[in-house]
Structures are given as structure tokens and as C-alpha cells.
Amino acid sequence: MRNGPERQTNASEAALHAVDYWQVLKNRYGVILLTFLLIFMTAAVITYVLPKKYESTALLQVNHSFIELDPLNGSVGQPMTGASPSHAYIQNQFKIIESEKTLLRVVEQLDLPTRWNGFDRNMAVLKLKSILKTEQIRNTDHIEIRIRHQNRDDARDIAKAIAKSYQEGRNEDERKRAGDALDALESEVRSQEDLVEDKRRHFHSIVRAVGIPYIEGVLTSGRMGQSEETILRTAEMQQFTAEEKKGQLENQIAQLLTLRDEELIDFAEGLQLPGSQVPVLRARYQEGKVNIAALEASGLGRKHPSVEMAYIAQEKLSEDLKSSVVVLRELLKTQLNLVNGQLDKIKDRVEDRRFDAVDKALQSQDYVEAKQDYETAKAMLSQMKLTNSARRIALKIPKTPITILEEAKIGMDPVYPKVTLFLSLGAAVGLIFGIAIAFSLEYLDTSVKTLEDVERYLQVPVLAVIPTDVGVLHKQSGMSPDAEAYRILRTNIEFNRNNPEDNSITIISGGAGEGKSTTLVNLAYVCAQGGYTTLMIDADLRRPNVHTFFDINNSVGLSNYLTTDLMLEDVILQTPVDNLYFLPSGILPADAAGLLNSRRMSELIQDVKQRFDLVLVDSPPILGVSDASVLASEVDLTMIVVQHRKLPRNMLVRVKEAVENVGGHVIGVVLNNVDVRSDSQYQYYTSYYTYYAPSADSDPVPSVGATASGTSAATESTVAANDEDKDEGLSY
User: CA angle, 278 as apex, 272 and 284 as ends, to 5°?
Assistant: First the structure.
């Protein structure tokens, strides 16, 4: 059952912290704004000063090499078809693009040392590496080449040249691999032919030793002579040649049936068979394409008779090419039939020379093994020739490992610096730093900020919260709502004094400029308005200024009374405000503290306490001189005026200690110059000032210009009008 209250407490604390944070932001909005503007303007200047860079992008399609070489033995594997490049393969292509070989070709092609004054070839290559960026398009075999440079034309030309250089390098590498592969294929065939020849010689040596005639795997009856062996070898070679030719023709026919378009034409042209019209028609077809391109480049449209006739002739050549390929395929089939016939005749001729001597041959183990090795090697050679024939055809067909999908293009606007991004970052960083500095200053600021600060460190109440920009009340026209703050101060003084006879109060502050004198004058004014005879004593014998509030001559006053035989009636003046009297400071003495600590000063305080309902004594700042401490020991009560967010808390504690060390009694603190508009925690204390302030329709108060001779009736009226205030205890 405790979870509910605990959650409410935590929620309340969180809300309180949120309010505190918001208050810090409101109090330090100037610092936040200044920091924000400084960083934002810095970001704007940097964005403006940074050199503009343009980006050019070229898009390439990367294909696997269609040639696979065994690095151990140099053998050639099956051609790659439709294989998607792996991530590792793409990364390797990045290295090729960024290699010195590729970039050096670009440097020479564009003559970059001349374009970039002061650069040699090596420096130009290094700069290219610094401005080059390669990136794979996700889940594709496409590569983007990006170039960023301050010059738009250079960025476009470099991106285009790098793509072209990379493509040419890959084509050269592919041609070299094809040449190496062809050499490897030829080497494989030659090695196998040598092996077959060795096996044949070994086998025939055994045949001669055993005395068994042999013609291509068949035993004959009788011993062979030298002429018969020659005939057999010739027949054997004829059979090998016929079988190889047969396999080649079958492979060529198959390629003509499977290849399409340009690859089919390239293959047919490469056959170079007698009577083939493909080379001639192909040359005429290419000339036609060039002629059409020239006509269109001259500005002639598609409907122009010349262009139309050229297209018709080109279509006729295309049909003739296709027909020539069909004729070529039929010619190859005819040759294949001829070869098959020749092969059959050779086999028949060999078969005619067979004889029945198998039993004798089988009696020789060496004969059987040699025969098996020979037949196996021969079969492998035949299969190798058929396979390699297809491989050689595939290697001779042109391939394109790199395709440039999009030529290098470049936008009109620079891509760096990005104005929106830089300014947004500047704004964000400025705001973050501003808030951080604000909270840091708030943390380091030990001045008095809240009512709780005063009550926690001084253990005395806050008597009143005075808003900022409060003027002198008796000089204001009409009903001022600011007077309500001082009426609250008047009431709280009454409730916080323990002895009703304590009616002498000195008003002190820790330092100059905290509003001590203004607070005294305004408090005296509202007390006088309440019908109480109030005396203001300007005991600041160093820098007096209370007389300036009433435009009163300061030549005769407290110092004169303390040093001469003047009577109080000679130095106490009545102000234009009813019930309000004033004792100026008089001439400034050499030893102010000594005068204030004199017996005559003590007698003065006791005398005026009897004559007036309230005695308010102004003093110098207590931390600067000892005058305020002397006065605090002479009067009944001491009230401290503290300017909001000015005096450090430790200094405020010293002010109270200075009063208590001389036996004074601190009745409370007035928190002055509070900006209630920005500090929400004080709005509760001050929001009702205007609401409860006297209106123009309320009972009149004594006029500022009232004279001493005519104050009796006005005073009675004022006292009657403020009976409610007297009911609160404001009776001195």
C-alpha cells in the first residue's frame, strides 16, 4: 500500500526538478543566447570561408573474370558464366582502381602536373588518392567512383578518366589472361600428346617382342613386318586426325546454334572457312553503320531519303549476314558428314587387318598393361582435344569485364560544405554549449537565489520579496502596486518582533548598491501612510543619500547633533509626507564610527524611540566599515537587505555574524530586486500585488504635498482608513 504515496512523491520531485531546470534556463537565457549566437555565427563564417567542392560520379558494372587459371599447375578451368562478384572480389577492385598504375595513367592522360601548377607526377597521384572515393552499390555488382574537387571541370574529367583507365586496365588484364590460358591449353595438349607417344612406343615395343601384329587395339594373325607396322602407324594417325576433326566440327556447329547476335557474328567471322561470305558482309555492315552515323551527324533526320535508304541497305546486310551464318552451319555439317565417312573407312581398313591372336596376347602381362595404358592415354588425349577446342573458342570470343553504365556527371551546386548541415550543427552545438554553460554558471554561482537559500543559511525569515525596477513610492503618481510589497514587509516586521517595544530598526546590507536606502525610504513611506509617526535617520556618515529622495538640504543633521549642543527639534525635519520625519546625516565627520559609538548617540536612539512609533536607521554596508555593526548594537532590531543573485551565501552568513557579534538581533531579510517575470518561483509571492493594490476608487491617502500645519485631519482620516492594518498589529 505504500507504493502509491511513494510514486506520488517521486513524481512530485521529478516535476520540481523539471521546474528548477526550466528556471535555470530562464535565468541564464542571456548566456544561452550569446553562446548560441557566437557558435552559430562561427559555423556560418566557417561554412562561408571553407572552399567549395564539387562531386562527380561515374557508375560501373563489374564482372568476374571469365578465365580461371590454376595457380599450382597452370591449368585452365571452365569459363565463368553469370557469376556474381563476391565482396572480397569487389574490395580487390577498389584496390585496383586506387592503384598507382591506374591513377598514373589518368595523370598522364589529363596532364595533371600542368593543370595543377607545382605538382609532379607522384604528387598528382597522391592528390588523386585523397579526392577519390569508391563505393559498392548495396546488393549489386555496381561500383561508384566519386571525385570531389574545387574545380567542377577537373572533378568531371578526373572521374571520367579514372573509369576509363580502370576499364582499359581490366581489358588488358583480361587479354593477357586469355593469352596465358591459350598457352596453358596448348601446353596441356602437347604434354598429353607426348604421353600418348611414349605409351604407344612402349606398347609397340612389347608387341614386336611378343611377335603379335596389332592394329589399333586389334590383334592380327601372324608376325608383323616393318612395312605392316608403318601401315598401322599411318592408319592410327589418320584415325586420330579424323576423330579430332570430327570433334572440332561438332563443337563449331554447337556454337553456331547457341550463340546470338554480335557473339554469333564474331564467332562465324573467326572460322574463316573457304567460301564463307561472313567476313565480307560483316565489313560492309560496319561500313553501313558508320555511313548512317555520318548522315545523322550531318543533321539529316530519320525520314530523309538518304537515311531511309541507308537503313534499308543495313537491314538487307543484316539479313544476308544471318543467311551466311546458316549457310556456314550447313557447310560445317557437310564437312562433318565427310569426316564421319572417312573415319568409318579408316576403321573398316583397320578391321580388315585383324587376326585372331588374342589368346597369345593375353598370355603376356606386360602386353596387357601396356595396351591398357596406351588406350587410356589415347582416350584422354581425344577427350582433352574436344574439351580444349570449346575452351579455345570461348577464349577467342571478346568479353567485357567492365561496363561503364553512367558516364561521369556533375551537378551545378557544390556538395561541400553543406550549408544546411553545417548551420544545423552550429545551431545544435551552440544550443547545447549554451545550456551547458548556463548550468555550469548556475552551479558555480553561490549567490542567494531562493527564499530557501536565505532561510537555510541564516536561519531567519524572509520578510519581503521586492520586485525589480521598483521606484520611490512617494514620488509616484496614482496607486502603485509596488507599495503592496512594502506593506507585506511592514506586516512581517510586526509579526516577527518579539517585544512590542522594539521599534528601532537599522537597515543594513553586505555591500553597496543592494537597495538598502530605497528599501528604508519606501518602508517609511507605507508606515507613515498607515498613520504611524515614522522617523528616518541617515546614519551613513560616509556616503549619505537618503536626503536626495526628498530633495532636502544635508548641511545640518546627525553629525552636527552628536558634536554640538543642538536640540532634536533643530535637526529633525518633516517631509512632505504626513507622519514621516527625517534626520539627515549632516556634515561628514572624520571619525564616523566613533561618533556612532558615542553616549550621545545611544541617548539619541532612546529619545526618538519614545517620540516616534517607528525609527528606521540607514547605515553603511556592514562588510566595508564598522559603522553598521555599531548601529546594530544600539538599535533594537536589524534588517538585512540582500539583492537577488548578487551576494554570495558565505558573505551573507558573515553579515549576520557581524550583527550577532555585537549583540544585535536580526529580525529578517528583504530579498530585493527580484526579476519575478523570469523567475517563476517568486511569482507566487508577487502575483497578488497588483490584484490587491488600492484602486482609484478606494479611500484617499495623504497627498505627497501635504504640509505639517494641515496634517491633523488628514492623519485622522488615514488612520481611520488603515484601521484594518492596525488590527494586524501595526501599533508601534
Answer: 130
